[in-house]
Specification:
The protein is an alpha/beta fold and about 375 residues long. It has 13 helices and 18 strands. Strands 7-8-9-10-11-12-13-14 form an eight-stranded parallel beta sheet. Helix 2 packs across helix 4 and helix 3 runs antiparallel to helix 4. It is globular. Bound molecules: magnesium ion (MG).
Length: about 375
């Protein structure tokens, strides 16, 4: 059996196989680009339904807009995804407009990932989630052509993936207790903070479990003295680190806090792409890389390498995403210090089988090529 036949038998997304993405009414919204070229990009909006309303310091929502992407090449399909939580400034409209403006027919080789990124950056400077969707599909496609998952192509050992955390948002005491119960499979809990009841939230969690927590204030702490007090208080309660404690513009205050904090201070909203990593050095102890910010796996890998070279901690995060985006990020997990890759478990309408939680670690299917997903 040659490699193509193997993929076909295994159902790894050959075009000739049954349509991998169930497209019904949304089919009319699917637009095809560069039909005549060898790289054929198509996409459709797909609203993610959240299991619980997602409450952050500055917003609350029950759905996340998302766009699902397919990249066809020589009989193979690569899957990608753009997830657009509103605070990032992208929308279904901006993503589909950007994707619709791309002409990938000029590329006859999907391995030209760097050239394709340069091209996308030349089309528009931002649109990071839209670029990530193409990047993820390219990685899925090229991994399938090589017959290997990306963790292997990068030379990473999946056993080195850290425990991944399960996110508990700002909510009522009853819902917080319920979420702690739901998080049984996880060794680390991530707690969203930034409102007046921060300590209460931690006390509720501590009444149920002594598992380590990490805290994400989502820029919610305005006063640096108060932020420092919280860091000391949390350090006494088995907290691993604090993510984005203060507004991203408060650079001097964050540096002040970092010098004094007993816990590492991690940048999230502060940074997006590769050039931001150097900017974060000296202000933060580490960075939170997310594919939807970094324009995908290609730049996320470079960010992780640079941050490690600068002596910084690396965290790998996500948005609410299907298992497509989460599995793509999970390929990188063995090279980071902390993983927060639970976005697929926060939604009720996943459409891929991919990364799973095993003994608290996020694990990709070991021998499934590309990003490791199969459509449900
Ligand atoms: Mg965060």
């Amino acid at each position: 059996m040659n490699r193509r036949d193997f993929f076909k038998a295994a159902g790894f997304g050959l075009v000739a196989a049954a349509s991998p993405i169930s497209i019904s009414a949304a089919d009319t919204a699917t637009r095809h680009i560069s039909r005549g070229g060898r790289l054929n990009l198509s996409f459709e909006p797909y609203e993610l339904k959240l299991r619980h309303s997602f409450n952050l310091a500055k917003s609350s929502r029950t759905t996340t807009p998302d766009v699902q992407v397919r990249l066809e090449y020589d009989g193979l399909v690569g899957y990608g995804e753009a997830s657009m939580p509103p605070y990032l400034g992208e929308s279904v409209d901006s993503v589909t407009r950007f994707l619709g403006s791309l002409d990938l027919s000029q590329f006859d080789d999907p391995f030209r990932i760097e050239d394709i990124h340069d091209y996308m950056d030349s089309v528009a400077p931002d649109n990071r989630a839209a670029k990530a969707s193409v990047d993820i599909a390219l990685h899925d496609l090229t991994g399938k052509i090589m017959g290997q998952p990306w963790y292997k192509i990068w030379g990473l050992n999946p056993d080195n993936a850290p425990d991944t955390s399960y996110t508990i948002g700002i909510d009522t005491a009853e819902v917080v207790r319920q979420k702690v119960d739901e998080a049984d499979a996880y060794n680390v809990l991530k707690v969203k903070m930034g409102l007046d009841n921060d300590k209460e939230l931690v006390e509720i969690i501590r009444s149920k479990t002594d598992r380590p927590i990490c805290v994400d204030a989502n820029q919610g702490w305005d006063d640096r003295e108060k932020a420092l007090n919280m860091c000391h208080w949390l350090a006494e309660r088995n907290c691993l680190f604090v993510e984005q404690p203060m507004p991203k513009e408060r650079i001097d205050d964050t540096a002040w806090l970092r010098e004094r904090s007993p816990l590492p201070i991690i940048a999230d909203e502060f940074l997006q792409r590769l050039p931001d990593v150097r900017r974060a050095a000296g202000i933060y102890d580490g960075i939170n890389i997310k594919l939807m910010k970094s324009t995908g796996m290609h730049e996320a890998y470079k960010m992780a390498v640079l941050a490690k070279a600068l002596g910084m901690k690396v965290m790998l995060g996500c948005m609410t995403e299907t298992s497509c985006g989460i599995s793509a990020a999970s390929q990188l997990a063995p090279m980071v210090d902390w993983a927060d890759l639970d976005g697929n478990l926060l939604i009720a309408n996943d459409r891929f089988d991919g990364a799973r939680i095993v003994n608290g670690q996020v694990r990709v299917p070991l021998d499934r090529p590309g990003i490791g997903v199969v459509p449900l």
